[in-house]
Specification:
- By secondary structure, the chain is mainly alpha-helical.
- It is built from 3 helices and 2 strands, in the order αββαα.
- It has one domain.
- Helix content is about 35%, strand content about 5%.
- A two-stranded antiparallel ribbon has the order 1-2.
Length: about 70
């Protein structure tokens, strides 16, 4: 999971600017997909490094609780 906050405007910007996943163990085209964890809160998220990292922390928590702990 990572974020590309400086991604230029375009079709994928809404996904890439927010914390998103790349699932490399999946079949194509999924490894190249940008699966956004926090969509729609970009203005609030990029206020500071702290808010970006908090959003990413929440994304990791979601992955842990909804995927990893269910395996």
């Amino acid at each position: 999971m990572h974020t590309d906050p400086q991604e230029p405007d375009g079709r994928l910007a809404i996904y890439k600017r927010n914390p998103h996943l790349h699932i490399k163990a999946a079949n194509d085209p999924i490894p190249k997909s940008h699966i956004a964890i926090t969509i729609g809160s970009m203005k609030n998220m990029i206020v500071s490094n702290q808010t970006i990292f908090h959003a990413m922390e929440q994304g990791v928590k979601l992955i842990r609780e909804e995927i990893l702990e269910r395996c």
